[in-house]
């Protein structure tokens, strides 16, 4: 089993929604380098259905974008009780309660 690393944008007071409204003004070369270094270690993505819904409508059609070219061929795992037929290539749906999925080895 692999190691799970969570990376996301957050304000100091813990807000994680709508990162486009608070982090882009501060995204500089140092932050880009840090994100790039992290990205080099990514071998798969684990996400919830809402993030999957957003990303699966955007990234498959953006293969010219550096992140799109990177993320599209990677395995993607979606924890969801409502998604049954993923449309994004290399996506596996993990259904059931998170603790049950973890106990079952992700299957």
TrEMBL record:
Gene3D superfamilies associated with the record: Dihydrofolate Reductase, subunit A
InterPro entries xref list: DHFR-like_dom_sf
Domain of life: Bacteria
Protein name per UniProt: Bacterial bifunctional deaminase-reductase C-terminal domain-containing protein
Lineage: Bacteria, Bacillati, Actinomycetota, Actinomycetes, Propionibacteriales
